[in-house]
Amino acid sequence: MSSALLTDPNRYTKHRMAQNKFKGLGIALITPFRADGTIDEEALVRLVEYQIKNGADFLCIMGTTAETPTLTRDEKSYLRQLLVQRVAGRVPLLMGCGGNCTRAVIDELQSTDWTGIDGVLSVCPMYNKPSQEGLYQHFSAIAKASPVPVVLYNVPGRTGVNMTAETTLRLARDHENIVAIKEASGNITQMDDIIKNKPEGFDVISGDDGITFPLITLGAVGVISVIGNALPREFSRMVRLALNGDYSSALHIHHKFTELFKLLFVDGNPAGVKAMLHAMGMIENQLRLPLVPTRLTTMEKISDILQELNIKY
Q1: Where are the alpha helices (DSSP H) in the chain?
Q2: pLDDT of amino acid 259
Q3: Which residues are catalytic?
């Protein structure tokens, strides 16, 4: 750490603000597969170019929506290198690195080549359901070990444990390189509490497309979006309008996609968005077990709404 950071009483805020690149529309990038189950690199490259061209502010790779638990270590390494090379610094890259064994996460942080990666998204430990003190100690250890800025990820619907506002704020105050939280608890009161009491330079990012608009009106800085895989132009416009205070125009776009928000998750994620991308002719509708494609009825509803909205690739 530089001498300026050691002597400046506002060093943590300034250092944190300089690191935080994850604002606006972030894409929770899918992993497209071919019919034989292998990674479809050509489709992935097309998706990345499509998203950057149409307003994505950053990409979140190897998160939940990427079906990361079904990827091998070699596949994850290959995808990281491919995406770093393809994006080539045009937008920031946030990469998932988390788990329910603190030591294993630290080992991954220390053994991974982070060249070209701008931050790590680390999810709350799943299955073993730690206490709030356990969550604090887990993320403190990750913050100390991480060579890049850390974005916390709270998604109790998947992990089985909710990180409270108090724990999030404690981490934000104690660790300069924890720059944001992706909040997907669904608890607006909790999110508002974090926004209201957070230290300067620490940000809240929506982890749920459906509440992005109201959360931005409360002070969130953007979203890590599932629907943005398919509709980056439309959704980035909504995000920018809301961030600029044009709530009326943003709300109009938000309401256009209300039904799609529901359909994307009714059969699980990323089954819904993969069905949408398939209907748009962009990928094959393939997932890896234990995930399976959406039901035919859901697929038909998604296709009907896309036709009504006149959404074309």
Answers
A1: 3-7, 11-19, 41-53, 73-87, 102-111, 132-145, 156-159, 165-174, 188-197, 212-218, 232-243, 247-256, 258-266, 271-279, 296-309
A2: 93
A3: 153, 182
Q: What are the φ and ψ backbone dihedral angles of 229, each rounded to 5 degrees? A: -55, -40
Domain presence at residue 260: no
Amino acid 281: pLDDT: 94
Please tell me the total count of domains within the chain. 1
How far is CA 290 from each of CA 71, 139, 221, 273, 287, rounded to the nearest angstrom? Answer: 12, 29, 34, 17, 8
What is the extent of the structural domain holding 147? 3-244
Amino acid of residue 223: V
Question: Which phi and psi (to 5°) does residue 23 adopt?
Answer: -135, 155
Which residues of the chain are modeled with pLDDT < 70?
A: 1-19, 311-313
**Does 294 map to a domain?**
no
Identify the CATH number of the domain in which residue 189 sits: 3.20.20.70
Check residue 20 and give its pLDDT. Answer: 80
Q: Is residue 253 part of a domain?
A: no
| Cα–Cα dist 232/56, whole Å | 6
233-236: Cβ within 8 A, 24+ apart = 233/54, 233/55, 234/311, 235/25, 235/55, 235/209, 236/24, 236/25, 236/54, 236/55, 236/56, 236/57
Residue 189 CA to residue 179 CA, distance in Å, equals 21
The answer to whether position 293 is within a domain reads: no
Q: What is the pLDDT of residue 18?
A: 53
